[in-house]
Amino acid sequence: MAATVNSNSVVATNSPLGPTTRVTSTVITGDASYPTGGYALTAAQLGLSVVGDAIASIAGSATNNAADAASWNQATGKLQLFTSGTTGALVEQTAATNVSGITVKIIAFGF
Predict the structure, then answer these.
(1) In order along the chain (111 residues), what is the average pLDDT of each group of 10 residues?
(2) Disulfide check for 46: which of 53, 77, 88, 108 has CB 3.0–4.6 Å away?
(3) Which pTM does this prediction carry?
């Protein structure tokens, strides 16, 4: 099963980022098996043609606490989830972990 993606977009006119910059808000709900390296998301899934950058944060955790932080990896185009490791430092969530209770909000900027 893949993560569920719901996207909304707004055109930011007269933005310091440029006259045609779009800002989108996308909610991602995890699935029962976190993929190695994170969830690959296309610009279209984020409501854009090109992603300039994005900010990700945990929006909710319904049934488990399988993630403590979320991050958009611009280089790979993936949403990554992190959890506290044995030393307390954040480490990427282990592949195949059930993250179906995790909801992440991504604010993306682009065109």
Answers:
(1) 71 65 89 95 93 92 78 97 89 94 92 85
(2) 108
(3) 0.86
